């Protein structure tokens, strides 16, 4: 019986030798991720390409004319109704993002720095409202802001008003309030994770060097938690632009957003090319706005230092 010499390559079965091509780490890595890549390509990239292709076509009653045209983009960018809806959507989305981050940061900060051994309990309590349906939460805000609100009931009971008022409902403010509550948890969690990564010894060092609580927060805690703030802002801003359920239920005529117009084009209006052009235009503008938001936050971060 022959024993393999020390340092010789391990024993291989006949025919099991792999080619140099298959031994390449790049090929092995691609083979590993290729199923996921193909899956993402089919479910994410392909639908976007279909929408982009439709945006350059024309709806001709029940058929689609595949002749290349930019008419849909001209309508999307120049027609006052769509232009106003787009700007209103961007305004609402940006306002909701700012309010949500501003409200979420103190909560995340309290849980991270003062939650102690009850951090998990605090996070659990924050997620409880999200066990219910999103539609149910929107309808709850419709009740609070609408006819059956506590304010209306109290004013009617005091004889101040004879009929319930909907002053807080069916406008942009109602949409902002509802969306801010709906996306609060999605802003708290990334900020909390970012704050958990802040080295507490750096905060203590800033205090030892003479910085007060506010100065150490602005120079240490806030800059180090900036990635969480950026993530929270983007997580809230991008989906809220495309929300059409909330504006439809609590926005009314003055709270309609661009997503409602897109939904109408793909629905009753049956003008898929125009709806696709509105979608692509919104997607491009939101991407630019998201990039600008990241640059602004990073600039503020550098100034804080």
Automatic annotation (TrEMBL):
InterPro entries: MetI-like, MetI-like_sf. It is found in: Cell membrane. The chain crosses the membrane at residues 37-57, 90-108, 120-136, 143-161, 173-195, 216-238, 276-300. Its main location: membrane. PROSITE patterns: ABC_TM1 (PS50928). Keywords: Cell membrane, Membrane, Transmembrane, Transmembrane helix, Transport. Residues 86-293 form the ABC transmembrane type-1 domain. GO terms for cellular component: plasma membrane. It is a multi-pass membrane protein. Pfam families: BPD_transp_1. One of its GO terms (biological process) is transmembrane transport. Belongs to the binding-protein-dependent transport system permease family. CysTW subfamily. This is Polyamine transporter subunit membrane component of ABC superfamily.
């Amino acid at each position: 019986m022959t024993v393999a010499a020390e340092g010789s390559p391990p024993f291989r079965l006949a025919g099991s030798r792999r080619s140099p091509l298959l031994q390449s780490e790049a090929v092995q890595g691609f083979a590993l991720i290729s199923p996921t890549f193909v899956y993402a390509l089919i479910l994410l990239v392909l639908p976007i390409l279909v929408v982009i292709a439709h945006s350059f076509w024309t709806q001709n009653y029940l058929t689609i004319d595949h002749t290349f045209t930019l008419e849909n983009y001209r309508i999307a960018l120049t027609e006052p109704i769509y232009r106003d809806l787009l700007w209103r959507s961007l305004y609402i989305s940006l306002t909701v993002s700012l309010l949500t981050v501003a409200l979420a940061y103190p909560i995340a900060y309290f849980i991270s720095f003062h939650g102690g051994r009850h951090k998990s309990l605090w996070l659990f309590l924050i997620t409880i409202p999200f066990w219910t349906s999103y539609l149910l939460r929107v309808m709850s805000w419709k009740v609070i802001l609408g006819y059956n609100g506590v304010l209306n009931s109290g004013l009617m009971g005091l004889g101040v008003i004879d009929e319930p008022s909907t002053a807080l409902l069916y406008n942009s403010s109602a949409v902002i309030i509802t969306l801010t509550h709906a996306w609060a948890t999605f802003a708290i969690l990334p900020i909390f994770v970012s704050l958990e990564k802040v080295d507490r010894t750096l905060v203590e060092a800033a205090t030892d060097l003479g910085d007060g609580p506010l100065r150490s927060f602005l120079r240490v805690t806030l800059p180090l938690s900036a990635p969480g703030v950026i993530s929270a802002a983007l997580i809230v801003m991008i989906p809220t632009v495309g929300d059409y359920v909330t504006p439809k239920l609590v926005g009314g005529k003055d709270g309609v957003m661009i997503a409602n117009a897109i939904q109408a084009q793909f629905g009753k209006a049956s003008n898929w090319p125009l709806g696709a052009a509105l979608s692509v235009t919104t997607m491009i503008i939101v991407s630019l706005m998201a990039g600008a938001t990241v640059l602004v936050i990073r600039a503020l971060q550098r100034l804080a230092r």
